[in-house]
Design goal:
Layout (H helix, E strand, L loop, with lengths): L6 H8 L3 H8 L7 H23 L3 E9 L2 H14 L7 E9 L4 H14 L5 E4 L4 H12 L4 E4 L10 E3 L3 H16 L5 E5 L6 H17 L5 E4 L6 H14 L3 E6 L4 H10 L6 E5 L3 H8 L5 E4 L2 H15 L15 E3 L16
Parallel strand pairs: 1-2, 1-3, 3-4, 4-5, 6-7, 6-8, 8-9, 9-10
Antiparallel strand pairs: 10-11
């Protein structure tokens, strides 16, 4: 009977003597079948409990590094803190490195400081896919610090896994909804990205553009980018877009700043009957309740954070199994299928 446990441990689990367990394991005879079953059951129980034993008392220090608007970073922090109890008996301690904007060099310097510090056991990273950041993430991996990318990927960085939605599919879903809801009405579509360097946003835009070209080639796309998803920058860019194309009748917000977009459109009396956004953060929850957004493409950010933490724990051989990550499910949330008290900590990205 193959097993990894000392005879003493099996005997304690089975409530039998070590000599009896030894006879069962080595098939020496002279033992009742019911006693042999006790030994087999003890091994089964130890197998089931092994994960808990390996995790018990272990503490993992993880760093969460993000370049994102404060509304999304806050949702990530809340989601992680809400999920920590579900990871027991492992204990996770977290350090947060949040920034709304900045240079790639500064972000790479943050990752290098984590690498030099020597105490990090994993990094959850949301960052632009640029050479400086990709190289810095690679240096973390080279030092044995697992990196998990969140909602936007850095596939050439050596990261251990990506956690988030299929962004191309999300973009195509937005195109389908806009096409269905605009119907035969004429009009073009405003698309807004926070930056051209986030792979997740770029993939959403590509999925959206491809689907629109296939389903509705008559509609033009008017792009806004470089706002970092911040309200002040969005107001100016929306007005510029309306000057370029007064026929805008729908919005697909890929990178955020939706309160500013809605308020700017309303301030000049420009009607956009369809507005699709991402993330049920505080702003989007309010706007959706008020009927000022048509729909929000949603996924469970708490589940994503739990998956990211489990990948890091698996990387340290404290959880069994092969690391496998599937894309998060995309849900279409409207004012009519929201949970009564939906919390921003439960959703995102």
């Amino acid at each position: 009977m193959v097993h990894p446990y000392p005879i003493k441990e099996i005997a304690r689990q089975a409530g039998l003597s070590e000599a009896t367990v030894d006879r069962v394991l080595n098939a020496r005879g002279g033992v009742r079948e019911s006693t042999a079953r006790q030994v087999r059951q003890a091994i089964t129980d130890l197998d089931r409990q092994r994960t808990q034993v390996r995790l018990g008392g272990r503490t993992f220090m993880i760093d969460i590094v993000m370049q994102a608007p404060e509304r999304f970073s806050s949702a990530v922090r809340a989601a992680l803190e809400a999920e920590l109890p579900s990871l027991h008996p492992a204990v996770l301690r977290s350090r947060f490195h949040f920034r709304e904007t900045g240079t790639a060099e500064d972000l790479a310097a943050t990752l290098d400081r984590i690498a030099r510090g020597g105490s990090s056991q994993g990094v959850i990273l949301k960052a632009p896919d640029v050479p400086e950041v990709t190289a810095a993430a690679g240096r973390l991996v080279a030092k044995g610090i697992p990196v998990v990318t969140l909602v936007t990927d850095l596939p050439s960085s050596g990261r251990l896994g990506y956690v988030g939605i299929d962004n191309r599919a999300a973009g195509a879903t937005a195109a389908y909804l806009i096409g269905q809801w605009l119907g035969e009405r004429p009009g073009n579509v405003l698309t807004s990205l926070s930056s051209g360097f986030f792979r997740g946003e770029e993939e959403r835009e590509m999925g959206f553009r491809s689907a629109m070209r296939s389903m509705h080639p008559e509609r033009s796309l008017v792009e806004i980018t470089g706002t970092d998803g911040l309200d002040a920058a969005m107001r100016e860019r929306v007005l510029e877009a309306l000057e370029r194309d007064p026929q805008i009748r729908a919005v697909y917000s890929i990178g955020g700043g939706n309160a500013a977009t809605v308020e700017t459109l309303e301030s000049v009396g420009h009607a956009c009957p369809v507005f699709i956004a991402h993330d049920l953060d505080h702003d989007n929850t309010r706007l959706l309740r008020e009927g000022r957004l048509s729909a929000v493409l949603h996924h469970d950010l708490r589940q994503d954070m739990r998956r990211a933490c489990r990948i890091i724990i698996q990387a340290h051989n404290a959880l069994p199994g092969t690391i496998r990550v599937q894309p998060s499910a995309i849900q279409v949330i409207t004012p009519y299928n929201m949970e009564p008290q939906v919390s921003a900590m439960a959703v995102g990205g």
